[in-house]
Write the structure tokens for this entry.
Amino acid sequence: MSEVLQIDFGGRDAAPVVGIDLGTTNSLVAFMDLTGPRIIPGADHGRLVPSVVHVGDEVLVGAAAQRMLIDDPARTVYSVKRLMGRGAADVADELKLFPFRVAEGSESILRLDLGGRTLTPPEISAMILRELKRNAEKALDKEIKQAVITVPAYFNDAQRQATKDAGRIAGLEVLRLVNEPTAASLAYGLDKRNEGIIAVYDLGGGTFDISILRLHDGIFEVLATNGDTHLGGDDIDNRLLKIALEDAASEWGQDLSHNGAFVQTVRRAVIEAKERLSFVPQTTIELAWDGRTYSRLLTREQFERLIRDIVDRTLGPCRECLKDAGLDVEQIDEVVMVGGSTRIPLVREAVANLFRTRPHTELDPDEVVALGAAVQAGILSGRVEDRLLLDVTPLSLGIETMGGVVSRLIHRNSTIPASATEVFTTAVDGQRNVLIHVVQGERELVKDCRSLARFDLKDIDPLPAGMARIEVRFLIDANGILNVTARDQRTGRENSVEVKPSYGLTDEQVEAMIRESFERAEEDLKERQVREARLEADTILAALEKARNDDAWLELGHIERAMIERAHNELMMVYCSDDYLLIRLHIEKLNTATMGLAEKMMNSAVRAALKGTKIE
Amino acid sequence: MAAPDYFEFLGLPRRLNLDAAELQRRFYALSRELHPDRFSRAPAAERERALSASAVLNDAYRTLRDPIARAEYALGGAGDTEQPPPELLEEVFEANEALADSDADEIAAAHRRFSALLAETDTSLPALFARYDEGEPAAADEIRAALARRRFLKKLVGRLENV
């Protein structure tokens, strides 16, 4: 009892921190309450918010946007997570399968053209985050300003930064980016073993992660992680989609693969068939289009043959991860399954074979990451004190040296925060700037690694070549994001560092987007208030029309009736204005004018009711 | 911003043969104290300090946990690793010949030979470390030479493997 009293479970002044799983297919928001982490349902009571955004006259998110995939595919975005932190050239192949288009001038920053509005992936993700934020605010009846957001463990710096940007644009301070498999282990670890080695296999809609952790007395120490940020259920869907499209084309003698609405109809049908095959040995891919029907039997055996290579692609990273952790398969005590794709029997079988143990599937694989994010939010807000996550950076960090060779500074699987210090100098007399090119990846040559950013060390004192000594500290923070600071060793003075991200938004661009989203939010709010005022006016006007037929109306004096008529006419006159305050003012006036009428109606209703009881 | 001494930071004696369990215990205890998670609602300056301190802690743990990295750190680097150790000059020359001629048998033989030498160097280290820990003045130089030899051999074995 006393233990419970010592813990602050969200007192009036404690601002709640929520945990968010911003997924490729679905997103969820969760919160830590008295009983532990729980999912906060959305407006339609669904626990999963489909990560789909429709950008029309108004922005729709979730199930409502999902319906627009067929009605208005060109302005409806799904799987936007696949585009986060990437350049247009990276995603050219992938975009062939999406109904939406890349906007002109996307060479440096990817933008999507959605029927007039061009938006970057972080802005679109921010729309999903804003929806989750609203859901949480409604459920907790408090403003939500801070969140923990999960990312695939194998996300690189640019992808992480893009996720953080999305949070900022949505008006959320991202207290921590936490890796999805690690978050899942927190949710699983709540009432489980206190000691041991666990592997988390996370196959989601668009990404695959494997993490191996050591659990020790509340500390969750990640030993190694590996993965593929472009491998997931989407790949399975796309394969089935391609086959079904070809099949339908040959059956109907007409190729509809360029019709966005048709492609989405087929996509829906193959996804449903895929999901059914996790529970039944065979099913039919069925759909109707333009008066025709398509129907195709698919057995689990055929399905498994089709997807086996995709499932096998997850096994290589698992072996690499074991090697990096310095462990043999026998040393893994438990395996935890995360992500919707782990419902597929073939996936479970492959994992069981590799790790020679039956994987855990007790928690809903779609919810476990969000639940873990809520636990991490609890840790950060001080509600959970006995647990601590020690995560690692998934990729090595290096700088470009002579001849395009990478000099590695921080190795992959280093516990974060991690840092490295290097001293730089100038090459010519009087040089004022030094440019450092930072890359991420495991290869020897810069061209084979992922360019992360160029850091421009400025205001170096003009000295003969080679005399300046600039000490640069590369620090990967607990979010897995790089921070660079520089100091002149001679003077001890800090040098300013300008960051030029290779893929992604500069700080200024994010600021501009935050401003724009605020302006839009104000516009949206105003629109909503006008709409609500009109709805209220509708209600009172309808009630008045009904009252005219009531006996009470006849009991009114002519002055009172005239006053009601005037208030009614005035409300009708302002009804179409977009000043919601004016509409509300006249609703109030009509309300006041009809007070006597309402009282009379009430009395007659009471009289009628009393009469009724007597008769019985 | 000068990094503190890793041994001191972890509160451990400056020894090359270190108690691994004790190291891990201290790492976990300090992590609980210093990790940024503990400071998420603290003022910015304090958060910065926690971030910096826990980066040092992790760097220290990573370095001291691995006996080779630990020795290199304690002795201030491994010395020259580009030049073959003088006693192996001739054999290295032959191995390079074999590589140049792509002579599979010779390469395999060289690989066996240098792998054995590498293993031998590794097994010699704990005794050398013990002599250093007991304060024998000559040990440091011997260890430096052994570490350089080890690095050189490792690289060479890697090259012989990748043919």
Notes: Chain A touches chain B at residues 175-176, 216-217, 219, 221, 379-382, 388-390, 414-421, 471, 473, 475-478, 487 (CB under 8 Å). The two ends of chain A are 54 Å apart (CA to CA). Chain A has four domains: 2-231+313-390, 233-309, 397-505, 509-615. Confidence is low (pLDDT under 50) at residues 1-13 of chain A.
